[in-house]
Amino acid sequence: MLIRHTPVLAALTQLSCPVQVFPHAGIQQLTHTHTPAASMPDEKMDETKKKKKKTAECCGYPISIFFIVVNEFCERFSYYGMRAVLVLYFRYFLLWDDDLATSIYHAFVALCYLTPILGAIIADSWLGKFKTIIYLSIVYAIGQVTMAVSTIHDITDSNRDGTPDNFTFHIALSMLGLILIALGTGGIKPCVAAFGGDQFQEHQSRQLNTFFSVFYLCINAGSLLSTLITPVLRAQECGIHTQQQCYPLAFGVPAVLMVISLVVFIAGSGMYVKTDPEGNIMWSVCKCIGFAIRNRFRHRSSSYPKREHWMDWADEKYDKLLIAQIKMVLKVLFLYIPLPMFWTLFDQKGSRWTLQATTMSGDFGGFILQPDQMQTVNPILILTMVPIMDRLIFPLIQKCGLNFSPLKRMTVGMLFAATAFVSAALVQIEIDKTLPNFPSSSESQLKVVNMYSTTLNVTISPSEHLLIESYGSSADYITFDHQDITVSLNTSNVITKAFSLIKGGRQTLIIPSDPTVMYLVEDTKSKPREGKNAIRFVNGWTADLNITNLDSIEPSATTNYTLVNQGKRDFVLRHGEQWCEFSRKFGFGASYTFLITEAVFSSDCESIVEVEDMKPNSVHMALQIPQYFLITTGEVMFSVTGLQFSYSQAPKNMKSVLQAGWLCTNAVGNIIVLIVAEIGKLPKQWAEYVLFASLLVAVSIIFSIMAYFYTYIDPAEIEAQIRKEQGLEPEEKEKEKETLEMEEKDQKNEQGVKQTKI
Ligand SMILES: CC(C)C[C@H](NC(=O)[C@@H](N)Cc1ccccc1)C(=O)O
């Protein structure tokens, strides 16, 4: 047997399924070596022999794909694990604001889906898929390690206060890490899927389709586990001098997984079918297209007979086979034009839908779901739906005699994504009913809190009259369409004071025990982020107070808002020897002002009064499940099918290029999200969802028309046909001849070795 018996293969051969070796499978990687082996110089022959491999099979599948799917699992764990904590790292380690953090995050994601072009060019034109995956995986692993190192705050924390002293160092290192990661993850992405496809032979087309589904399952299993695990690692505390959130662990584990991914891929190297690159194919493609355009222009006069396709104008100079291959690729790339719109909607799961979840309640009884954890519903659904679709739905549709072709599936996938956004809009309408009535940009809102010892008559010019009891507040915010107000209090003598309110803001007027010093504080005018609760205290006690996790608070003063998570929270209030514990259970997304009374210690904190500035979220996060279900159904139909389609419709030497083109549609989709987020602000969120849904419906109609005119091809058959027309030997024959010759040479060599041993 010619196959090398690695320990892993030996283990695999112990499996219950029969392992077969197909000698003819090695033919594939000789596809592009047109020089007959017999006429090759010895050196070249050895080189080719090294690449020649015969495929071992298990249950009809090449064993080599085991290494490829495990590699993909680890790589996706690494990528999504790092991505899960990236925004938090920007926000709370590098201390960037929300806008900068989200912009850099989306720019990074877009870069990750642009670099596949580079990877595909390197693979198809220069190194071949195998070497490209190895080299770029090394770059990727270095990037992950660089990123993990950049998160060690102790490196620059010379004063040991827990925060880095040299932010430039951390920013530079993390940006370098991210660039390397984007280069690595994007570069290998089109190669791994296409390399997996290359392992299959012609008689394994059914297994090839299953492979793409299993490949997709591995992506989602890896991403699911990592998005659950890395946030937990981040929440740990670690450090050399001071204990901080453990970003090095949260980024370090993905780095380790990337190294494992590389090791697994290399472990399988003895078993892969490796197709050689055909020289600089991309350069030839560009030159050929350029020539066709120039030649067409030169012959623009109507006296020249028309040609069937504009690429046929390259006929004079370029090989028919190359022209045919370019036509195949261009046809598919043209079909890709409307596809970014799907990703524009799809990628809003991580942004708009997560923000929507922050205005909802995640209390599922037995467990609490954080808004950003809602995203894990997507990989969970993928893991259940891909097998159901593959084994049940698609075969059932086929049995009903319906022709559910790949392009039809993709169109239906788009329509599912559009309905997901309609569902999101309906949920948004429900949420909007429960949201506070925030001021418009020209309005101002005011609430009044009375910390005075008796009930007060408050007049706000010109026409608001309020009666507020001691340690009470006005029922709700009063909205003004002007900013200048005068407040009069009817105490033993009338106290009058003028204020200027913030345009578009919400404020509270605090009337302390000495009403003459009444003052305004600014309130939150949006739901607290991440479903947290914003709380603050007003000190009605006669002296300074210490409250756990808050600064000391002077008499009559108000603390800034502090964000607290959902659940029961305890606060210890202390003044000298006196103390009491204040406990409160919080929901999601509320805001409170707690009024500390004079009787705080004598009542054991029981007298603290709660003023609800913003109601907790009442619409349940479970209502988002239908939209997740719809978008994931859309993803299975669109994305898994698109992956298979891009592979099957590409000529052999341009498979990675088409995979990259497919991934590029995702990059463009992400860029559209970035642009829309910056410029297209509709006043109502639900209207934006409906707009996106309508756009996708329009795009899917255009796509279905384009798909109607698309004829599915078998690139291998077309290539064989052209070879025949050109009088070239059919590829298979040529390859078989080469294989036989090499096997003969192998045998001779083996005999030679035996004789030498004897
Ligand atoms: C969509 C990508 C181009 C393809 C694929 N992504 C997925 O399969 C997503 N379902 C994974 C995911 C996981 C967690 C949260 C959101 C999405 C990929 O990454 O290759």
UniProtKB/TrEMBL annotation:
Q: Does the keyword Transmembrane apply?
A: yes
Q: Name one GO biological process term.
A: oligopeptide transport
Keyword annotations of the record: Cell membrane, Glycoprotein, Membrane, Peptide transport, Protein transport, Symport, Transmembrane, Transmembrane helix, Transport
Annotated Gene Ontology cellular components are: apical plasma membrane
UniProt record similarity statement: Belongs to the major facilitator superfamily. Proton-dependent oligopeptide transporter (POT/PTR) (TC 2.A.17) family.
Annotated InterPro entries? MFS_trans_sf, POT_fam, PTR2_symporter_CS
Name of the featured protein:
Solute carrier family 15 member 1
In its UniProt record, a GO molecular function of this protein is: symporter activity
Q: Which domain of life is it from?
A: Eukaryota
Subcellular compartments: Apical cell membrane; Cell membrane; Membrane
The opening ranks of the lineage are:
Eukaryota, Metazoa, Chordata, Craniata, Vertebrata
Q: Where are the transmembrane segments?
A: 54-71, 107-127, 133-155, 167-188, 208-234, 246-268, 328-346, 410-429, 657-677, 689-713
Q: Which reaction does it catalyse?
A: glycyl-L-aspartate(out) + 2 H(+)(out) = glycyl-L-aspartate(in) + 2 H(+)(in); carnosine(out) + H(+)(out) = carnosine(in) + H(+)(in); a dipeptide(out) + H(+)(out) = a dipeptide(in) + H(+)(in); glycyl-sarcosine(out) + H(+)(out) = glycyl-sarcosine(in) + H(+)(in)
Under the heading Gene3D superfamilies, the entry gives:
MFS general substrate transporter like domains
The segments labelled Disordered in the record are 724-758
